[in-house]
Amino acid sequence: MAISIKSPEQIEKMRIAGRLASSVLEMIGKYVVVGVTTEKLDQICHDFIVNDLKSIPAPLNYNGFPKSVCTSVNNVVCHGIPGEKKLKKGDIINIDITIIKDGFHGDTSKMFMVGKPSVKASRICKITQECLMLGIQQVKPGIHLGEIGKVIGTHAKSKNCSVVKDYCGHGIGLGFHELPQVIHYDDGKIEQSPILESGMTFTIEPMINLGGYEVITSKIDGWTVTTKDRSLSAQWEHTILVTETGYEILTIREEEKSQHL
Length: 261
Ligand code: MF3
Ligand code: CO
Ligand code: CO
Description:
Layout: H1 8-28, H2 38-52, E1 56-57, E2 70-73, E3 76-78, E4 92-101, E5 104-113, H3 119-137, H4 146-158, E6 162-163, E7 169-171, E8 178-182, E9 201-204, E10 207-209, E11 215-217, E12 225-227, E13 233-235, E14 238-242, E15 247-249, H5 254-258
Helix pairs in contact: 1-2, 3-4
One cobalt (II) ion binds at residues 107, 170, 203, 205, 237.
């Protein structure tokens, strides 16, 4: 299967799905406080997505995933399952939202800090967001997809952090995970990677660790991915459209429009 090019009508639907996904992250912020369980955050997001947005939470039952959002705390890299554990002061948590509206997917995540973060915690969150934005800024027709991972890998390395290799960004549209795979490091095959064309839509979602790049998947739940060395990990994700001149961030939040990222 080749990389799909979205029609103007499909792009408009992707814009709507993206905006709705970002609105969930804007809505949930005030609930991310000391003592709240990740299960409660899941329930609030689920109800908002279904009742207010009239949309479908894509993770629910996706390959057997049991909840509507992913909540990944501290050394959890991704795919954390919401549960009974309460958030503590100083925790960092990624909330990853994917919604389906009118058949199309919008996928986005950000880090939240619970109370005052440690220097290490705020550092990994900031560096990872920088990695995402640097990756996005490469996007325009004619470049190799691999250029995105190259700048992300270079930035992470310059800060003595490592890029998770086992999970990638992905094409997105009618499917949750379409082609291409968007890797977040330089695999030495940039010239062989696809050339971007306007109308492509994909996510960029770097996972960056304070320690080594190796990760483990829980043998107990089959989902939760943690750093092998237990170091802190962060992730930020946007759904991106390749335009004639560059890119459009389909999942941009209000807070980002006024920030200088
Ligand atoms: N939202 C994740 C991504 O960015 C995928 C989660 S799949 C799930 O691709 F099954 F864990 F929900
Ligand atoms: Co996601
Ligand atoms: Co994604």
